[in-house]
Design brief:
The chain is mostly beta strands and 77 residues long. Helix content is 0%, strand content 32%. It is built from no helices and three strands.
């Protein structure tokens, strides 16, 4: 099993992070964290995506819980 978190800018992938547990059969719960700095104009937009893949057909779930956070900050030059 592995999980991936993606950050998209204007519909295109900007950055991603992956947690790979395919060689560990004891993982029951995991989280994926990602952070990046993106230059944005007034008409740009950001999207978040997540995915869980399991090669053994065990029906893994991607769950956004109360521990899901997103923050955006303006960095002034």
């Amino acid at each position: 099993m592995y999980g991936i978190a993606y950050i998209y800018k204007n519909g295109a992938s900007h950055n991603y992070a992956k947690m790979d547990f395919r060689n560990d059969s004891f993982i029951r719960e995991a989280s994926v964290s990602i952070s990046t700095i993106i230059d944005l104009d007034a008409d740009d937009y950001v999207e978040l995506y997540g995915n869980v893949n399991s090669n053994d057909g065990s029906g893994q779930m991607f769950v956004a819980s109360s521990l899901t956070f997103f923050g955006g900050y303006k960095i002034i030059e």
